[in-house]
Protein 1
Amino acid sequence: MVTEAKSQTSTYVVTGANRGIGLAFARELSRRGDRVIATARHPATARELIALQVRIEALDVADEESLAVFVRSLAGRPIDVLINNAGIGQAGPGLERLSLEDLNLNFRVNAVGPVAVTQGCSPTCERAGGAPSSTSRAASLRSPATNREDGMPTGRLRPR
Ligand SMILES: NC(=O)c1ccc[n+]([C@@H]2O[C@H](COP(=O)([O-])OP(=O)(O)OC[C@H]3O[C@@H](n4cnc5c(N)ncnc54)[C@H](OP(=O)(O)O)[C@@H]3O)[C@@H](O)[C@H]2O)c1
């Protein structure tokens, strides 16, 4: 839970925000007054996200056309923080039963996806005065408002 009082608002993009950690990010950022651009593969069925009344855009991070449409939807709006949350998390079968198709999809979503989204959002982050920054977890963006080395917002997100 975020407990610190805010002195200014920022614009966050949260990918994969219809459930899980992404939804929690969107909910908490919205609750504390930040602007949230939340993405989901299927916005129409993202009921919990819709209930937050944040801006929702469609995005499949493994689909180039979907990413291009999403980037156009930003229309140059400055982004302070990109949270590359979308990913495939479940453990797969053992190596001997691993399908190369699944392996490929995992790479496209978990490895190529964050870099592609970061590239797409980079011009709008630069417009906010920031620059792309890769962290050990995933590609991410930060602006001067988020000046920690790990790319997380300065002193704002803290465990309960
Ligand atoms: N939970 C953990 O303990 C843990 C640990 C380490 C890392 N992580 C990582 O943290 C992130 C969030 O974890 P979580 O537990 O909240 O995962 P989750 O509940 O499985 O949610 C994953 C989110 O990513 C979205 N997603 C999947 N493939 C996508 C694609 N091709 N394009 C766009 N969105 C896509 C899902 O959308 P759909 O609903 O449409 O599938 C969903 O919104 C994931 O990247 C996960 O790998 C989690």
Protein 2
Amino acid sequence: MTRGDVFELIFQVFLGLGTLVGIVVVLYIMYNAYIYRDDEAVDDPKADSRPEVGELPVGGTGGKKLFMSFILSAIIVISLIVWTYGMLLYVEDGPGGIGQGGDIQVQNEEEVDQYHDLTVRASAFSFQYEHNYQGEGGGTQGNELVIPADVPIATNVTGTDVWHTFGISEFRVKADAIPGEYENTWFEADETGVYDTGVQCYELCGSGHSGMNHDLIVVNEELFAAAMDAEAPGDLYSAVESGELSVDATAEEFESYMAAQQSDDEESDGGNNSEGDSGDNNDEGADSPDEGTSNNNEQTNESGGEN
Ligand SMILES: [Cu+2]
């Protein structure tokens, strides 16, 4: 159950019970208003039980109804409190306790490793994030956060300069990023997709605060595992962000994307110079090939000099 599911359920239960209690109370009021109505034409069927001004209405049965309504309300309210509190504890602890009860502590990175298969350490600093995937295949990412769907993710949040707050409103998670403190929490994404400005800073932290929001990419578990195996969550992020891979792509599609990327890199490394040269020569060399060549050399020299 995701954090969103919990809050949705709490909302539904309160709405349902509130509606039910409201209907019962309103109907009972209307019923009483009808049978105790002031009408000469009808006999007063409740003459004996009609309450007097200043008296506690006993309903003719020694206060039984009053007592019952009090007990019933108490049962409803107390069970709501107990149940809701339990649900909120689940929100803090997470499935299997990976949320660590929202503990705030000072700890080192080795301890973070032990939490769960996937722990993301989010470090906020003015005015960026650094996302560190703990565990096998992990590594450090910049602002780019890509996660698998339907996997509870342990999150450990800290800050390195001023106070920030790491938050993903879509998945109802928020944790303060305070220098020297590590706040544990968790969240789970139930749907794949690209969430525009999904990761935001929720603490006014300085002039760059409004720019501290970044897309969150949620992919299927298989695709994410493939990216972790290749130690390339960053490549997966940019592949999805640029539209070259869908969030529901398969591991094979990711592998062929990576292979294509690599051969592209090799091609551009090896072929850039010759391509560039021939292009320039064709354009400029139509009138006078010598001029074109000398221009090229000048440009090369200039840029070399600047560097
Ligand atoms: Cu901020």
